[in-house]
Amino acid sequence: MSNITNRSLNEILESIKSKKISSLELTQAYIKNIENAKKLNAFVTTTFDQALENAKKFDNKPNNEQLLSGIPLAVKDLFCTENVKTTAGSNILNNFIPSYDSTVTKNLWDNGAFLLGKLNCDEFAMGSSNETSFFGNVINPVGNHLVPGGSSGGSSSALAADLTPATIGTDTGGSIRQPASFTGTVGLKPTYGLCSRWGIVAFASSLDQAGPMTKTVTDCAIMLEAMSGFDEKDSTSINKKKETYSKDLKDNIKGLKIGIPKEYRVDNMPKEIDELWEKGKKILKNLGAQLVDISLPHTKYALPTYYIVAPAEASSNLARYDGVRYGYRSQKGKDLIEMYENTRSEGFGDEVKRRILIGTYVLSSGYYDAYYLKAQKVRQLIKKDFDDSFMKVDAILTPSTPSSAFKIGEKTNDPVSMYLNDIFTVPVNLAGLPALSLPAGLDKQGHPLGLQLIGKALDEQKILNIGYAIEKNCGYKNKIKKWWS
Amino acid sequence: MSKEKFDYFVEGDKGKYEVVIGLEVHAQVLSNSKLFSGSSTKFGADPNKQVSLIDSAFPGMLPVINEECVKQAVRTGLGLNAKINNFSVFDRKNYFYADLPQGYQISQYKKPIVGEGKVLLDMPYGSKEIGIERLHLEQDAGKSIHDMDPSNTYVDLNRSGIALMEIVSKPDLRSPDEVNAYIKKLRTIMRYLGTCDGNMQEGSLRADVNVSVRKVGDKKFGTRCEIKNVNSIKFMQMAIEYEANRQVELLEEGKEIDQETRLFDTKKNETRSMRSKEDAHDYRYFPDPDLLPLKLEQKLIDDLKKSLPELPDNKKERFTQEYELNSYEANVLVSEKEISDYYEEVAKLSDKKLAATWMMGDLFAMLNDKGLNISNSPISAKNFAELVQSIKSGEISGRIAKEVFEIMVESGDNPKKIIESKGMKQQSDPKELEKMINEILSKNKDKIDQYKAGKEKLFGFFVGQVMKLSGGKANPQLTNEILKKLLKG
After folding, report:
1. I want to staple A149 with a disulfide (CB 3.0 to 4.6 A). Which of A178, A371, A451, B281 is the partner?
2. pLDDT of amino acid B1
3. H-run or E-run covering A408
4. Quick one: closest CA in B to A207, which residue?
5. pLDDT tens digits, residue range B129-143?
6. Which chain A residues in 297-356 lie under 8 Å from chain B, judged by CB atoms?
7. How many folded domains does chain A comprise?
8. Long-range contacts of B272-277 (CB under 8 A, 24+ apart)
9. What is the DSSP letter of A200?
10. CA-to-CA distance for A203 and B39, rounded, in angstroms?
């Protein structure tokens, strides 16, 4: 089984359950890959000893009734993991070891998986290229000059490089879907409230949502099933019956109505993106779906709205990192105020500081109504656009990003152009809807491109089914060469 | 002590000033666990022993509202005759301080759980209604301890996250006495409801005091100053007194009053500026995205309303009717639920008027003396009722009753038993009394003559002699009657 690590999670599970491979052998294979892929800088922390021990434990007493029996998994370093350092990609949490597991990671472990390591990400998930991490940028396995997307860049990179069979990320404005698109992998942002936020380092509470990142749509369904579920510790968690996404996955999409929003054809969009979109439409049509032109008129306000709401919440969420109780504390300063100032100046990176400043500004007295309150109103309009459209269609098809993976350093000095990369993903977070990104083609340079399927609230099964159908019919092939090892 | 007319004004050279006061009372909700976490709220634990990951704001921790605290706020709102809002919102009040782990306090800003209400005060010059502006729920902060170490500050987070009700009055109060009555009334109502223990020593009840002054007759309010976090009624009164005089002095000198936040220095008995309006914090309030808006079903509110206990105003009304008490007596006897319960038990078993008199006299004096409250009184309500009944029936005199009372306090014994065993029963047999009186009179012939000659004061002397002879047991009323009759004869 030399090639086990380039299989899908579903295939690996089959191999484990049929005893073609042991959990220990599987884990050792991933550890070998990870050790050979240090150049990618995808990991902040590895937990090999713990993983090997867990694998042995599984092999001694295998329980094959679970969704993730004997599967080692690396997860984004935004999820708190019990007794394992959790940094959120920041210096300010450089020494933070939680005594607890996030609900989502606990759900994974309860389903038979165990931790392989913690994956690099943009600092506090603020970024679209994984270049804002205190632990250095992550490289896209697609090409050594390319960013893996962000903020879940360590996750997308590790997944595409076969360093983990599947992974999880968080998506506040596209942080799962954009990196998935950039690395030719599948990423799902679930409906707001489907996965518990408890134990995930918060960025923007009303937008944050954890989701799976996988090699295939089937894997995505398995992971979503394992990680989601009601949690009474999260007041915004949705109390509903658990679904069986993987069992119910089917590729028959005949008769479904797919909305095509005209506002997503933006200026200066590369021709290849347009062609990808056309390709997606054609596949759906051929499978018997009906394409419907729709309008989401407030789309153009989504990005500015997002860049008020998200920083506002972040400025408050990040106030707790003050050096008093845990995390980094500056040794400089003569009183409490100076201790705060030095701790936060030294602990946070530039992008985080920028967003704290923006957020503090838009909530300030005299500016609140003009910015934050107005943004909340626009957010309602954006949500209403989707509600109106979903009266007519079952799902919406758009490109995931306006470009393929860009070069390392290309946008670091131009935050606005960086922010613009999330233009197709951000509206979905503002509306709290589920959306799937799946690889559907390559550009001229051979870089992956993704299509996005947006669903109604709690309609994950439907977009997974449509994605499953596209996956089977688009002929996408990963062209990653393991240049790093 | 009682005054017929309201007369609290500050006299200046240029006129008479009225003092306008509004209070923001912070009352700790009586609940087992904190507002958004499961940590205990018990007072007096070692520092940082009642702190969860949520209270100390660890990464990824989320608040979950404690339903009991919500119910307590609704009960309190109902007790204040206030409008309960079916829809309320928790906001974040952002500021940095070492004892505020989240970097924000979760509070209700624009949409509080309770709206306008009112509280009735019984003042010597009549009853007065004080408007309630609102009541909202919020988290308490921790405690910074600055005096344990010369160069470090210590932080205790046991209080962090405990539920508080902030009860904001309208600027309807006009004197320190009214503030005293208002706080006591709020406290009584909340203790009846069981929503706050009102224990000021433990910090369960604190207030920010807003004070302004204006010339009598002026319609417009003056500029107010807010005196932060005053934790006893006495200090509130002292602070108001000082602050009102300071403001009048400024106005008299033709100066302006700065709207500012002030602190009351209890050692120097003065208020000092803490920060001016310009330095006021910008709290950047916004709705807490971790919490959904609080939606209350009308049925929940109705059910809570139905289950409310009888409140002091209603009970007072009933006491004046049912027990024929005057307004003053009824007020005193309903001031604490436990007192009213005790009284009702006593009144049902004995004479209701005499019971009130004896409770408010000897019983309260004794409790006060011993630093006890009614619930740990050494005399049970049943025994107290028997004592009252023994007086009423003439079995013992008032004077003997005081002796029995003392023995009851010491022993906790039943009064009947004490009277029996000590032979303290009153002598009410006319024949026996007559015998005793004749004995006295025969020994004091000279005094009888003087009495008859007009020295009527000597009557008291004869009574005293009879009492002495009877060991204090002679029925005073009968003794008087018989003595009068015999002296005439």
Report:
1. A178
2. 44
3. none
4. B289
5. 999 999 999 999 999
6. 312-313, 315-316, 318-320, 322, 324-326, 336, 340
7. 1
8. B274/B228
9. B
10. 26
Answer whether residue B2 shows pLDDT above 60. Answer: no
Asked whether the beta carbons of B243 and B211 are under 8 A apart, the reply is: yes
DSSP 8-class letter at A468: H
Which CATH number is B430-488's, of 1.10.10.410, 3.40.50.10420, 3.40.50.1460, 1.10.10.10? 1.10.10.410
Element housing A462 (H / E):
helix A460-473
d(CA A87, nearest CA chain B) in Å: 10
DSSP state at residue A348: S
* Mean pLDDT across chain A: 97
- Are B60 and A325 within 8 A, CB to CB? no
Report the distance separating Cα A479 and Cα B10, nearest Å.
88
CA of B253 vs chain A CAs: smallest distance (Å): 34
What ranges in B65-162 are assigned the alpha helix state H? 67-79
Is residue B243's pLDDT more than 60? yes
Maximum CA extent, chain B: 99
* SS3 of B345-383: HHHHHCCHHHHHHHHHHHHHHHHHHHCCCHHHCCCCHHH
CA A343/CA A322 separation, integer angstroms = 7
State both tokens at B35: 């507002």
What band does B457 get if pLDDT is binned at 50, 70 and 90?
Answer: confident
Q: Which residues pair with B18 in a beta bridge?
A: B214
Q: Is B471 left (phi over 0), alpha (psi -120 to 50) or beta?
A: left
**The token pair that represents B469 in the structure block:** 């002879």
Which residues 6+ apart lie within 8 Å of B238 measured at CB?
A: B264, B266, B269
- Structural domain harbouring A101: 1-485
Q: Enter the ipTM.
A: 0.96
Length, in residues, of chain B: 489
Radius of gyration of chain A (CA): 21
Note if A76 is an active site residue.
yes
3-state secondary structure of B164: strand
A198 CB neighbours in chain B (<8 A) are: 60-62
Peptide bond into A8 cis (omega under 30): no
- For residues B442-478, one letter each, b for 16 or more C-beta atoms within 10 angstroms of the residue's C-beta and e for the rest, the string is eebeebeeebeeeeeebeeebbebbbeebebbbbeeb
What distance in Å separates the CA atoms of residue B458 and residue B478, rounded to the nearest whole number?
18
Closest to B169 measured CA to CA, from B117, B126, B91: B117
Residues of chain A with Cβ-Cβ distance to B64 below 8 Å are: 232-235
Q: What stretches in chain A show pLDDT beneath 50?
A: 1
Cα B363 vs. chain centroid, distance in angstroms? 18
Q: Position of tokens 């759906």?
A: A284
The Cα A427–Cα B168 span in angstroms is 41
Q: What are phi and psi of A213, to 5 degrees?
A: -130, 125
What's the confidence (pLDDT) of residue A22?
98
User: In A, which residues are within 8 Å of B289 by CB distance?
Assistant: 204-206, 236, 313
Q: Determine the distance in angstroms separating the CA of A316 from the nearest CA of chain B, rounded to an integer.
A: 7
Least CB-CB distance to A198: which of B62, B92, B153?
A: B62
Strand partners, B206: B26
CB-count exposure of residue B135 (10 Å: 0-12, 13-18, 19+): buried
